[in-house]
Amino acid sequence: MPVPRWRRVLVKLSGEAFAGDAEFGFDPATVKAIASQLVSAQQAQVELAVVVGGGNILRGAHAAAAGMERVTADQIGMLATVQNALALQDAAEKLGADTRVQTAINMSELAEPFIRRRAIRHLELGRIVILAAGTGNPFFSTDTAAVLRALELKAEAVLKATNVDGIYDKDPNKYADAQRLESLSYRYCIENRLGVMDATAFTLCEENNLPIVVFRLREEDALRRVVSGEPIGTVVGSEK
User: Whole-model pTM?
Assistant: First the structure.
């Protein structure tokens, strides 16, 4: 079996990914497909941590823009990520994976609290660690939470699963001649306000030289191909 590109990675899944082609909620077939990708990647001998978003249920910033108090909106969004984490855990375990869900806010009847050393031990034992509730604080996105957890867990890369197969020089949905970029610098992403991750997440990666791979999750066996070193998606890293 080929040696994986990284020994330990953190996968960032948007909440919208759980809805499939719907606008809201869970699509069971899609959740199963996501779980299958995780299990396949783990079989390539890579340790997997996963941070999930909650946008298929509620996005705190959107609810705040509609008039809800921002802290309350973000707290509801954290709860939405826990729902996604439990759904993903259920799907992965039905495929034979050993998993643990850890949350940044205490809800011991549902999941473990996030404890860094415990999470690392789960990874070492071959468990998929699913991390929910963001950082546990309002005003921080789940992208920032993903980078923070990746650094805490000594992951070697953040793999950002999206609906497009990388970062383009212009919107591929609007321009037929849009070109996918194979690599970019953190600084370029920050200065050009690329929306694939927020500026705080990019800055944390830049300060700690943590690479990001942006790729399309719905491609066949995409996650396993990324961890195996295939040149798919866009790599964001230090300037060459």
Answer: 0.93
